[in-house]
Amino acid sequence: MRRFALCAFFLIILSSLAFATAALKNGPAPAGRDQSATSRTTQPSGEEVFKQNCGRCHTPPMSISPRITGTVIMHMRTRARLSRQDELLLLKYMAP
Amino acid sequence: MLHPRHRRRYVCSILAIALCLALIGRVVAQNSSPVENHAGYIPAISGGAGYIHNVDGGITTLEPQINPVLLVPFGSHVLLESRGTFFGFYQRENQTSGPFKGQVFKSVDYAQLNWLANTHVIASAGRYLLPFGLYSERLEPIWIKNLQDAPITAAIGTRTSGSGNGFMLRGTVVQKPSYSVQYTAYFSALSNIDHLQSARVAGGDASVYLSHARLEIGTSYQRFLQDRHINSGAVYVSWQPPSVPLDIKAEADFSYNGRGYWLESAYLFQQLPVPSFFRRTQIVGRMQQFFPSNGGGNSLPRVDTQRFDAGLNYYVRDDLRFISSYGRSFSSQGNANIWNVGFTYRFLFPLWPGRSK
């Protein structure tokens, strides 16, 4: 049974990677992904900071009321140890 | 003593310089001001809620819970944040038969005042979550974790209540376009106050985040400073490949009571060529092993334990999902099947009406 469980786990890992590879071959990357590649050596945009940091722990929210955007980003800056620069970029991106 | 004419010239010069400084200050303030956005800073209520139907080794447990988070900013540099937990735990009277009975456990997970001084320093005082490894501070909320049962090693570095009472410093040491280095250092005092228990501990955490690869590598250390003084440590990796909705996390922990590791992988069907309905599906797998030392204990198993979990989650929206998982635990004390079914919901709304800037 233990061997079966281990096999099942690795099967999930392998199928994840297989799905991922298939997805890469079959479909273009979603909008916005190309932007991250263009500015590898320059300062990232707010969108890049959002994608790079929010998804590290949770699914990013679709929208946040502008009235509380500043509050929420202060909270996330504390949790995720974001820099002041990231905070300003996120504010500009999420509540332009 | 200045001549009256010179005095007048002197006063005029001072006024002119002051006026120039004021104008320069105003221009600098406008340029450096974060008011290039319309973000509002009014208090908010956030958090998670959910219900989990758990069957562990044939014993059914009903687990409703809500974890409200209160956020009260004072300007754009000071934030008061607090999270409470109301966790219901209901089992059948004779474990496998009879009516369900139980109670709601209440706790304050954190209640801290943060001063966001600058990039390098965020100073916190009050009650905070012990920052040890990946799980306790980042993945523990019900609406975040991919599998509802905590890893076995989550008890390492989080004694005695998962929270500390004291001071914490954290921030970004260095930030470059391709990487950043973060740190956390804390000290907690002993507290036996009801709902606010904490141990006397000191510790820290450091991590490097490679932003282009979206790869984070970190380590945590903690010294337990009461009763038997022990060291605990962890190393962890978190990776979300930029082009694939894959989330891989792994952590290895050690302490006086034992050592272990867990490895978790989650994949969202977002990019698969399947009907859009199925693209909200996520599959999760996790395996873990734990090897006790010195008899184990302190919420850790006393015998070698291995566990495997597989989960299937469905995101109805970004804030609402149905979760399900199956796990099997192996140990010399007996193997067991663990089932979880339920839903989680994340909420976030302003505490009172207000306008953005």
- Relative helix content of chain A: 55-70%
Q: Which two protein chains have the largest interface (Cβ within 8 Å of the partner's Cβ), and how many residues from each? A: A-B, 66 and 83 residues
Order of strands in the sheet with the most strands of chain B? 1-2-3-4-5-6-7-8-9-10-11-12-13-14-15-16
Largest sheet of chain A, in brief, is: none
Strand % of chain A is: under 5%
- Mean pLDDT of chain B, rounded to whole units? 90
The number of E-state strands of chain A comes to: 0
Spatial gap, N to C terminus of chain B: 52 Å
The number of helices of chain A is 5
Oligomerization category of the chains in this entry: heterodimer
Describe the structure.
The complex is a heterodimer of chains A (96) and B (357). In chain A, 69% of the residues lie in helices and 0% in strands. Chain A has helices at 2-26, 33-38, 46-54, 66-80, 84-94. Chain A is globular. Chain B is mainly beta and 357 residues long. Chain B contains 2 helices and 16 strands. In chain B, strand 14 (305-315) and strand 15 form a beta hairpin. Chain B starts with a helix and ends in a 7-residue tail after the last strand. The chains are: A mainly alpha (96), B mainly beta (357). At the A-B interface, helix 1, helix 4 and helix 5 of A face strand 2, helix 2, strand 6, strand 7 and strand 12 of B.
Blueprint (SSEs and pairs):
The complex is a heterodimer of chains A (96) and B (357).
Chain A: H1 2-26, H2 33-38, H3 46-54, H4 66-80, H5 84-94
Helix pairs in contact in A: 3-5, 4-5
Chain B: H1 4-32, E1 44-56, E2 59-74, E3 78-92, E4 100-116, E5 122-129, H2 135-139, E6 163-175, E7 179-189, E8 201-210, E9 215-224, E10 230-239, E11 246-255, E12 258-268, E13 281-292, E14 305-315, E15 320-331, E16 336-350
Antiparallel strand pairs in B: 1-2, 1-16, 2-3, 3-4, 4-5, 5-6, 6-7, 7-8, 8-9, 9-10, 10-11, 11-12, 12-13, 13-14, 14-15, 15-16
